[in-house]
Amino acid sequence: MVFKSINPYTDQIIQEYPTLTDAEVGYRLETSEKAFHSWKSTSFAQRADLFMKVAKILREKKEEFARTITLEMGKAITEAKGEVEKCAWVCEYYAENAEDFLKDEYIESDAQKSFVSYEPIGAVLAIMPWNFPFWQVFRFAAPYLMAGNVGILKHAPNVNACSLAIESIFKEAGFPEGVFQSLIIDVDLVPKILEADIVQAATLTGSEKAGASVAALAGQNIKKTVLELGGSDPFIVLPDADVAKAAQVAVQSRMLNAGQSCIAAKRFMVFDSIKDEFTAKVHQHIKALKTGDPLNEETTTGPLARIDLAENLSRQVQDTVKKGAELLMGGQQEKAHFEPALLVKVQPGMANFDEETFGPAATIIPVKDEKQAIEYANRSVYGLGASLWTSDHEKGIHLARQINSGGVFINSLVKSDPRLPFGGIKKSGYGRELSHHGIKEFVNLKTIYVN
Description:
The chain is an alpha/beta fold. It has 15 helices and 22 strands. Helix 3 crosses helix 4, helix 4 (77-101) packs parallel to helix 5 (135-146) and helix 9 packs across helix 10. It is globular and about 65 Å long.
């Protein structure tokens, strides 16, 4: 089988990548096993030194890597550069903090001494998506490799240039062979990898369907998983909020990466008393967006990563309008291009309320009070993030505790930050990435009791 890398802006083939054979995958697994036996014995200082070199390479070659991202999946070049910078940050963060996060934890008991030792477990299989093709990979690699594990990457089939570029960074930084490997494979070889003794865990960022499939396979082999799946994040604006600021951040959150983000604000729940003001300001900000060639520094919104993604978003918008919503602007689709859209009068039962919308379509949902806002926020199979806007911080915290999600950001867009745990509940997945919580997902919490 051959995967094609296609530029979504021009619809032209960039390059073709043959997939690995069963035998080649077997060899890569053997390489991982050999690498783990030595890598797990390296010191935190040795690992940190290598990750600092990775961060340095990322910054030195930022322009090159950003261009690769933009050509393969259409991200605006300025956003692609920001993504590469963020990867350098997470490498530095874990280089500086992993040893402290994983130091022995002493616990009072009836023993003379008792403590928990955090130890590496083996290879971690990472199945990663195309929407943040560098960030998603470094988000798993930095903590899990710093913990002494080794990594195996199965990236999305449309971003194999990114996948191989990341592998080249680890090689250039001086990582031993097999500590990090990019495997260009189809999904039919994932079971073989999960069955291998060296592979002790899997992390997946992607669709609900993909997450359920990998979790089932991992469960059959008694392997732990962390899943970061879809999201339909609510963005609640209370009457006492700074409406102008909320509208500006709402559009930023919805349109970042052409709306192709699990934690993008997707359902704007706005009180009736400020609905018209908020809508007008959102309309103004969307109108100011500049679509076009994503390699142009002035472009803010590039194409979607694939034609089928644009077609699905077009279907959702059309279905929502048929059920009574009003399309104030945008919504035209041609191949992978989708004109940023604004819908109002959206209600439960409409596609743009009930489904995850992965693209530049803002949805305004009127609410009459706080009770209805919380009810609507929780009326979703997903629970990844939420944003809530109010000038009353205590009220904001009180309402945040009632929202069923992995995180609530008050007066801010939802974001992933190396210092904060990241993940969701319900069909948004389980487990946490980032912070000290994330690095402890795939280690052996070994109790040592001494008398």
